[in-house]
Amino acid sequence: MQNILEIDSLSIGYNGNAILKPITWAAAKGDMIALTGSNGLGKSTLLRVLSGRTRPISGTVRLMGADIHTFTPKQRAKLVSIVLTERPEDMFLKVKDVVASGRFPYSGLFGKISENDEKHIKASLEVIGINHLINKDFTSLSDGERQKVMIAKAIAQDTPLILMDEPMAFLDYKSRIEIFELMTKMTSEEGKTVIFSSHDLDLVNRYCEKQWNLEKWAVS
Amino acid sequence: MNTSNKLTIIYFITAFLVGIALFALNILVGSVHIPLREALQVIFNKDNSSALHVIIFDYRFPQAVTALLSGAALAVAGLMMQTLFRNPLADPSILGISSGAGLGVASVILVSGSLAVIPHWTALTITSSAFFGAVVVLAVITLLSRRLNSMVMLIIIGIMIAYLTGAITDILKYFSRKEEIHAFVIWGLGDFSAVGTSNLDFYTVTIIAGLLCGMLLSKTLNMLIIGESYAENLGLNIRRATAFTIAVSGFLTAVVTAFCGPIAFLGLAVPHLARFIFHSSNHIILTPASALIGADLALACNLIARLPGLEETLPINAVTALIGAPIVIYVIFRYRK
User: Fold this and answer.
1) pLDDT at residue B327, as a whole number
2) What is the ipTM of this complex?
3) What whole-number distance in Å separates Cα of residue B183 and Cα of residue B187?
4) Secondary structure element (H or E) that encloses residue B196, with its range
5) Are A98 and B226 in contact (CB < 8 Å)?
6) Which residue, of A215, B46, B95, B181, is most buried by count of CB atoms within 10 Å of its CB?
């Protein structure tokens, strides 16, 4: 089976200084991979490099067989989606608006939502189990609900690879379990490849077969 | 059609009808009251020598059109700045564009003489210098926006440019005569009558072009409102989008400020009115909604500024805040969640 993501001798860091040992890993369709390692090691930086937003110092990231930087931003938007710890803050944003934003890479000049987009939006809300929130104001939701909406956005974006930075941050234990269950559903039933960073080692060990543990380049 | 869509259409129609009524009042009401029937006769009669014809076509019509376009332009420019910087206090002047226009005008009025009597060429010089000052600042900011990664840094640089241009203007004022300073203060109070018939076509075309560009940026702004990182992941080139947004917003501000002076408040307040009334963050709705409400509010302010019984026309800048602030407070309480 073709790998969705191939990381080859990847070195990441700032201003030419590597922060991690060079990485060579691969992720296949349906993989759910936890990115572990202590705080400040570079998990978020690695996720940014894997999403194509930041360039590595050296090495390559191949997405569906091609170097990630050979894609245009719009092409890349159809291959990899992200869920971050930052959240939209506009008080008039509806849940539907946030999920619908996942369809922007597919829409025209004015971002008009087509019937096909509507189907994707409804299906994403259904997979996550938050259909009842569709007309709610995003800022009125709990942290757990907001996280689910952001995941629904990523599903609506319809990409083979979904990257999540600390998806369990700020969530209580029950919500964390729900997010793990959702990620399992997305990988096993929807065939998505999910790579996420987490400090929740108990739950990671329970739910994930694959773990990528980051190691510092040099101990100072 | 769901209830929310129906309400949006009703609000649009209401704002449009209010605009028509206010436009008509702007034509009819003033130091000389013109009854509706007489106004219609003058408008549809070919006789263009009567005094009423002169009042309507040479003064009130251009002034009402200027108010309408300026209100719409500043509101849309303000909306774009607030979304781009995700800052509810951002307005069209935040990047120093109005201050640049101010410096341009100060250079002309304070350096080259008094504005006490304005021959046509002098008014044109003032407009050109204001436009030149605004465009120089706009160009600097747009270029910087392509090199900077952070919106916070950009906004700080904009504010610094505003301080710089303001400081130079203050130095010019310090060395100027009383009459020249007075003329500069008058320009700073804002005036919708400054466009006049001779420049109305140019003003209309440039503002409408700017508003259409603003409408074309709706999707970009809808992406930015989700967050910069998300917008980038959704395929948006952030630096290009920032530069375009600043260029369009700055262009609208530059044109309005060059002709009418630095009109405050509308650009800050109207986008909030639009959000609260239309209860939306979708720029496909917010951009035309802001334009309509901005036009309505500017027409209302222009009407109040020259109500019958007043010897002089009140400064627009004072009226916009005087009328607008209570409306914003009312709307926030009326539509709060």
Assistant:
1) 82
2) 0.93
3) 6
4) helix B196-216
5) yes
6) B95
Q: Measured between alpha carbons, how far is A206 from A220 in angstroms, rounded to an integer?
A: 33
CA A23 – CA A5 distance, rounded (Å): 13
Secondary structure (DSSP) of B76-142: HHHHHHHHHHT-TT--TTTTSHHHHHHHHHHIIIIIH---SS--HHHHHHHHHHHHHHHHHHHHHHH
pLDDT for the residue A39: 85
Q: Which helix (H) or strand (E) holds B326?
A: helix B316-335
Shortest alpha-carbon distance between residue A14 and chain B (Å): 15
Cβ-defined contact of B229 to A84 (cutoff 8 Å) = yes
pLDDT attached to residue B336: 64
Of B216, B232, B337, the CB nearest to A53: B232
Query: Is the confidence at residue B116, as pLDDT, over 50?
Result: no
**Distance between CA B131 and CA B136 in Å, rounded?**
9
Per-residue pLDDT band for B46 (boundaries 50, 70, 90) equals low
With a CB cutoff of 8 Å and minimum separation 6, the contacts of A177 are A203
Quick check: B129 and B187 in contact, CB under 8 A? no
Task: Give the per-residue pLDDT at A145.
Answer: 92
**Mean pLDDT of the region B62-84:** 96
**Confidence band, pLDDT 50/70/90 cuts, at residue B174:** confident
Judging contacts by C-beta atoms under 8 Å, the chain B residues touching residue A92 are 275, 279-281
β-pairing, A13-14 with A3-11? unpaired
Sheet harboring A66-67: ordered strands across? A23-28, A3-11, A58-63, A66-67
* DSSP tag of A83: E
Inter-chain contact B233–A53, Cβ cutoff 8 Å?
yes
Number of Cβ pairs closer than 8 Å across A and B?
Answer: 79
- The topology (CATH level 3) of B3-336 is ABC transporter involved in vitamin B12 uptake, BtuC (1.10.3470)
Residue range A62-86: mean pLDDT, rounded: 94
Q: Which tokens hold the place of B268?
A: 């800050």
- Chain A residues near any Cβ of chain B (below 8 Å): 51, 53, 72-74, 76-77, 80-82, 84, 86-94, 97-98, 101-102, 104-105, 107, 109-112, 135, 137, 140, 153, 157
- Pairing mode, strands A161-164 and A80-83: parallel
- Asked which of A4-8, B62-66, B92-96 is least confident by mean pLDDT, the reply is B92-96
